[in-house]
Amino acid sequence: MDRSLPEVHWSIGVPGRGPWVGRFLPFASPGYLISVGYMDPGNWATDIAGGSRFGYTLFAVILVSNLMAILLQALSVRLGVATGRDLARACRAHYSRPVNLGLWVAREAAIIACDLAEVIGTAIALRLLFGIPLTAGAIITALDAFLLLVLMSRGFRFLEAFVITLLLVIALCFTFQIVAAAPPVAAVLRGFVPSPEIVTNPEMLYLAIGIIGATVMPHNVSALVDRADQSLPETEAGRRNAIRWATVDSTIALMLARFINAAILIVAASTFHKAGYTNVAEISEAFRLLSPRLGIGVASTLFALALLASGLNSTVTATLAGQIVMEGFLKLRIPAWSRHLLTQPVASRSYR
Predict the structure, then answer these.
(1) In the chain, what are the domain boundaries?
(2) Burial 210-232 (b: 16+ CB within 10 A, else e)
(3) S-S: 58 plus which of 50, 76, 246, 261, CB 3.0-4.6 Å?
């Protein structure tokens, strides 16, 4: 079968019986590559602004957007297992050429916009950690295509391990921030309940749309869950088993994404909003205020380190998703690193 990213496919034995852990492991880890797209630097600004401006009120929006993401990825899993096609290839098979070209342009525009947020976020992290000017940081970010090349050359499992390691770094950094901020549990729990003010207050609605838009983007619904030919039996039971475990993998990974997005908003709400800093909307400003407000000198450094890890992860996985989009809609196959060098300069020029 013709697949996107053929270089990452291989056969994985799937035991039909035995402990659930052994049956789950062959399907584990691709969901984490997908989850990166739901917590990239583009999410940070909206979460920080929402938390500092409105406290915990927009917490419900993060929950709803995460549930939307889980549903979309579950549908993507079903499509991949049932048809052997990712969404882009399914569109090419069923829609006319003009419609496919329009869909491809829309998804490429989304990828470039996402690249812009990743370039800016990574460049800001480099400046905050090492004092590198933003323009130089943007150039360095564009060169991370070679990081992707190195990771791919060592095997896709190595790439997955790299991504998961950076996700753990982000999670640990924000776990520390939440513990230090000590948010009131009752207020956080009230944030789970949607407030009518979200749709009646124009400023709050604008930020809510930003949170949803930064979470559910078209190229996030990718075929990475189908990155391996798991040697599944051609039976209904075998396919149901694949759908079950791949859905579990993506759901767990997206719950981690929800934790990180929620943690950014909670830290902003408990640190800035509580102290009256209701106009903190920029990452650099949050970095400057975080340590003084928490009273812990390393807090700002951990914040910037998590941002750098998020930027690196996002550029790698967005390049893979972009390759799937290009191959699926256009049947055009170019090396992932060369595609990265084509799209990121566009984002860099847009930033400047």
Answers:
(1) 6-351
(2) bbbebbbbbbbbbbbbbbbebeb
(3) 50
